Amino acid sequence: MREALDQWTFVIAAYVVGVGATLALVLWSWWAMRRAERRRDKARGK
Predict the structure, then answer these.
(1) d(CA 28, CA 20)
(2) Cα–Cα distance measured from residue 35 to residue 46, given in angstroms and rounded to the nearest whole number
(3) Above 90 in pLDDT, residue 5?
(4) Residue 6 phi/psi, 5° resolution?
(5) pLDDT tens digits for range 7-45
(6) What is the pTM of this model?
(7) Whole-angstrom distance, CA of residue 5 vs CA of residue 3
């Protein structure tokens, strides 16, 4: 039995959170861009 904390658990968790948040931001930005393009095309009468 070990008393010391294993830092790799926290390192991996930080990477998972960082990558997950980055992917969420990319998807949200892509979705917002698509909405803005649709609004632009609608305003131009296309």
Answers:
(1) 12
(2) 15
(3) no
(4) -90, 115
(5) 999 999 999 999 999 999 999 999 999 999 999 999 998
(6) 0.70
(7) 7
CA 43-45-46 angle, to 5 degrees, is: 115
Is 13 exposed, middle or buried (CB count within 10 Å of its CB: 0-12, 13-18, 19+)? exposed
Question: Residue 25, exposed/middle/buried by CB under 10 A (0-12, 13-18, 19+)?
Answer: exposed
Question: pLDDT at position 2, please?
Answer: 67
Cα distance between residue 2 and residue 9, in whole Å: 15
Amino acid at position 23, single letter? L
Dihedral of the alpha carbons of 13, 23, 21, 35, in degrees to the nearest 10: -160
CA distance 18 to 26: 12
